[in-house]
């Protein structure tokens, strides 16, 4: 006796045969109705679906979609509905869902979504949503949906509130999860309209809908400008703020609080603290947010039960985002939403929460290192270490070996882990590593290398070698990027901070620099990199870091082969001299008719960041001059002595501060001592007079001594 399944297959096979062999439209239509009836009843398994497709392919459903003449007595959209049912059936096969014959029907699907919907056409709408959902799940589908206008159609379908609008919202969430930037780039007004409706519903809701919307809304909050650059976006932010105030100011269960914290974190990711209004209410709300996040972190991590932590990683990562905002607001001197008392209180609360993060990280097992939550925990701890250097010092020192090993593992392997939704407060665009943990640890390492105990731990764990490799890698990334001026990238910032760490090591551990081959390798990179950077003004801060670090290291590594008058050494020192010599100029003094010394126009915007490096670089250059006999010639080639003499002769002495005079004198004295030609240039440009005028006693004495020596007859 045949089973039900065998009977259905046999019936379907007969219908398909009739459909294929039909002599007239009425026979064909009757067979088609039987096939689609079976499809709609869910009686089609994979084998039957393949039978249907093999029998009729895409050609027949395509004809049905465009047919304008329904059978007598049938609704106008009868054939179209039958065609859609067949396509929806085919789309349950992932291979067919990604077929070009399905993808090229996306505009038709969009049109059907936006057509007036009567009770007879609801099955068509259902079939369209089934097709679109299947397309979204394919490799090429999301891109095709975005470029063919489905985002706009789904937005309109949701806003119209017709049949299946909930499915439109779900599809939009799926698309935004995969291609957020492209969706907003192409359809920002339509997406803002959806966000406007959602935020309005969120504000007005007084039941569980409010908490359900907390889960939906983060999908519609873009990381790009639309929120803060339009009145509609600003109004959305106002509603979301007020809605969150209502929620978080109430007594909540954990299942209600967690989605609210995640929504708040997504707003922080989108626009920092800008969505929180200034004033007493705003500051109390911000403090409440950070406080709640810290409490949640402590409750979850201080006595971690692996099962509990596993289920809370997403909300924990959202709490990290809120804590990072707390750090930034507590340290902001101007325009902070917080008062001084609130800042002190929050810093104490955050210290306890970061103690819990450290405790959690100390329990991490080797097999857990690929977990994105570990990365998020290291990243937020890096933010704390970058700013707060005095608290938790003992605990951080004990954790340093783990942090170095973890950063090394991710750097060497290029971790395949993917960040949790809230793991990145700042975009990692520009960083080539999937999980660049070192980038977030560098500022903290920079502080720690200035102190004996943490510096010794970092050195013992091989951090200098790791940082040298990282510097080289980031340098290669930077040089592969466009050379046009652009906002400071994470790559360039990482290079600058790494230079700061190496400067600390050069100053505090010169013996390490002498004996560790890492620094010889680094010196080679610095020699080649500075001449490439300096012509580009937009890289001036990085050039200042590299020039100063290279000069400081050259004093220690003067005996290395790379510095023995090689072409790369001469090019580096030539570039360093250009950087140092071009920093100052003469300009009109507003308080008098004369001229005053001033920072050169090209250096003005960066001077706050580089002036300390410039003075340190001048000291280092002065120390290098006796060590490298060919250096005075490089200064002469740059015509620095002539330029400096002219500058000091033209400006009012009162406009040159003591620190600058000391820096100039240090280099001038060493050049005069090392080279008769340099001394002659200084003397021929009235060096004795202006040395006396500026109180450069050491230079005066040097010029007098050397001058007397050169006037003594030979042989006496």
Could you provide a short overview of the structure?
This protein has 716 residues and is an all-alpha fold.
Broad shape: elongated
Unreliable residue stretches: 415-434, 709-716
Counting DSSP E segments of at least 2 residues, the number of strands comes to 2
Query: How much of the sequence is in beta strands?
Result: under 5%
Number of H/I helices: 37
Mean pLDDT: 87
Structural class: mainly alpha
* Gyration radius, rounded: 35 Å
Q: Biggest β-sheet: count, sense, barrel?
A: 2 strands, antiparallel
Q: Classify the helix fraction into a percent range.
A: over 70%
Could you give the distance between the termini? 130 Å
What strand line-up does the widest sheet have? 1-2
Q: What keyword list fits this structure?
A:
single chain, 716 residues, mainly alpha, two-stranded antiparallel ribbon, 37 helices, 2 strands, 71% helix, 1% strand, Neurochondrin
Describe the structure.
Belongs to the neurochondrin family. This is Neurochondrin. InterPro entries: Neurochondrin. This protein is mainly alpha-helical and 716 residues long. Helices cover 71% and strands 1% of the residues. It has 37 helices and two strands. It has helices at 4-21, 25-40, 46-56, 59-66, 78-91, 94-97, 100-103, 106-114, 122-136, 141-147, 150-160, 165-204, 209-216, 231-248, 254-271, 280-301, 306-311, 313-331, 340-362, 372-387, 393-413, 437-448, 452-460, 463-480, 490-508, 510-515, 517-533, 540-556, 567-581, 601-604, 607-624, 631-637, 640-650, 658-674, 676-684, 687-693, 697-711, and strands at 584-588, 595-599. Strands 1-2 form a two-stranded antiparallel ribbon. Strand 1 (584-588) and strand 2 (595-599) form a beta hairpin. Mean pLDDT is 87; it is low at 415-434 and 709-716.
